[in-house]
Design brief:
Bound molecules: N-(aminocarbonyl)-beta-alanine, zinc ion
Strand content: 15-25%
CATH superfamily of the domain at 52-372: Metal-dependent hydrolases
Shape: globular
CATH architecture of the domain at 52-372: Alpha-Beta Barrel
Oligomer: single chain
Largest sheet: 9 strands, mixed
Number of helices: 12
CATH topology of the domain at 52-372: TIM Barrel
Distance between the termini: 20 Å
Number of strands: 19
Helix content: 25-40%
Radius of gyration: 21 Å
Structural class: alpha/beta
Length: 467
């Protein structure tokens, strides 16, 4: 079937133009003006026509601190689609010592459940010889990135020698190494000191993980990657200290890349001091920061020190899950529900206010994540040959964010009560309408596993061909 998206303003990482997009089956076959020959026409007058967003950082059904994140592949990907995300890369975690066992478990959760396409990273939590050996098979199966946690001591943290071995092994097998950069030893000490002093409330989650522990770990990871001669991707960068390390490495010509996440652009550490235990809703790692860091993150995004804005979606209900840490902030499961409103928030609060341009929005949420994580050129752009993953975004549509109406399977929303202007009207994923008039109309199981290519630091965003 051929579908024509007519009369919208098409935006890619390189261009903004008024035109039409012609889809045949799962793919875009033409862009331009005056196109016809379609079985069905979608009128996009007054709307932006954007590539579906890629979210390269999600945690669906992830075990953490004795509980499991409360969006599964059905609810999590439905919420993603509602907000304009058409492909995710989720973190499978090494399980029973094995990377491949972790991968199989996550594949089992996704198959038959996902509404949109998905890939996996693998988190290496114990860099044993057997786990390192499994990286080759993972890469062969299209899992081309590996994450190490430098925090969460006593749980999933790796030591420096383990991180270095993963980097060395990636040099042999291929694969991009990603790091959660916080000095886990320092955090552990600060946490024990805080608890001994009776400081058990949520806000002490932030005071025990100050920006300097993120900056130090970022610099250390960059140094280890340099020793191993490998590129590095730093996840969820939150602060000036970490940005400076990444910028300095890039100035030296080292292939260091990074992202920030939506919550660090729109929320601050003040949320953790909400009355009662409400601050627990905002506990994530690294923590939310003081407002001054946001300008530095925006500058890094515009100037290219950071390449992406993902979500780190890792939702835990307030009741029964966040409450586990009522008497000790260390037991609050870390993470926030943020998969759904990335596009609307960025459009209303960053594009409309001049912090990001439309092409920067697409570069940071689609094109660069697709390139770095081996999904390009099929994902991340609107061009002949690309998957027809497309958001028809109404820039005037009002959206009132609330847990009462969001699609995520969680009992609160960190942006509760926020009113924004701009929301997806229709979302297509590989040519299927998955969201119509703002409602999810797809079925669990339509999403497919995407075998990802290896990252090539020398490649640029794929060239666009317009006709
Ligand atoms: O608080 C967070 N970020 N939870 C998810 C796990 C991680 O560190 O990415
Ligand atoms: Zn992390
Ligand atoms: Zn994460």
């Amino acid at each position: 079937m051929r579908t024509l998206i007519r009369g919208g303003r098409v935006v890619t990482a390189a261009d903004v133009y008024d035109g039409d997009v012609l889809i045949d089956g799962e793919s875009v076959v033409a862009t331009g003006t005056g196109l016809d020959g379609a079985d069905e026409v979608i009128d996009a007058t007054g709307c932006l026509v954007l590539p579906g967003l890629v979210d390269n950082h999600t945690h669906l059904s992830m075990p953490f601190g004795g509980t499991v994140s409360c969006d599964d592949y059905d609810t999590g990907t439905a919420a993603a689609a509602a907000g304009g995300t058409t492909c995710i890369v989720d973190f499978a975690i090494q399980t029973d010592g094995s990377l491949l066992e972790g991968l199989r478990q996550w594949q089992g959760r996704a198959e038959g459940a996902a509404h949109i396409d998905y890939g996996f990273h693998l988190a290496v939590t114990d860099a044993s010889e057997s786990a390192l050996a499994e990286m080759e098979q993972a890469v062969a199966e299209g899992v081309t990135s590996f994450k190490c946690f430098m925090a969460y001591k006593g749980a999933i943290m790796v030591t420096d020698d383990q991180l270095l071995s993963v980097l060395q092994q990636a040099g042999r097998t291929g694969g991009l190494v990603m790091v959660h950069a916080e000095n886990g030893d320092a955090v552990d000490l600060y946490q024990r000191e805080a608890i001994a002093a009776g400081d058990t409330a949520p806000r002490f989650h932030a005071t025990t993980r100050p920006p300097e522990v993120e900056g130090e770990a970022t610099g250390r990871a960059i140094r280890l990657a340099h020793w191993a001669g490998q590129p590095l991707f730093v996840v969820h960068v939150t602060c000036e200290e970490a940005v400076r390390e990444i910028q300095a490495a890039r100035d030296r010509g080292e292939p260091v890349f990074g992202e920030t996440c939506i919550q660090y652009l729109f929320l601050t550490v003040d949320e953790l001091a909400r009355p009662g235990f409400e601050g627990a809703k905002y506990v994530c790692s690294p923590p939310l920061r003081e407002a001054r860091h946001r300008d530095i993150l925006y500058a890094a995004l515009r100037q290219g020190a950071l390449q992406g804005i993902s979500t780190d979606h890792c939702p835990f209900n307030f009741e029964g899950q966040k409450e586990l840490g009522k008497d000790d902030f260390r037991l609050i499961p870390n993470g926030m529900p943020v998969i759904e409103f990335r596009l609307s928030l960025l459009y209303d609060r960053a594009v409309r206010t001049g912090k990001l341009s439309l092409t920067e929005l697409v570069r940071l949420t689609s094109a660069e994540p697709a390139r770095i994580f081996g999904l390009a050129p099929r994902k991340g752009t609107i061009a002949p040959g690309a998957d027809a993953d497309i958001v028809i975004f109404d820039p005037e549509k009002p959206l009132a964010i609330s847990a009462a109406t969001h699609h995520m399977n969680i009992d609160y929303d960190p942006f509760e009560g926020w009113e924004v202007r701009g929301a997806p009207r229709t979302v297509l994923a590989r040519g299927d309408v998955v969201v119509a008039d703002g409602e999810v109309v797809s079925k669990p199981g339509r999403g497919r596993y995407v075998k990802r290519a290896l990252f090539d630091p020398a490649a640029t965003v794929p060239a666009l061909a317009t006709v």
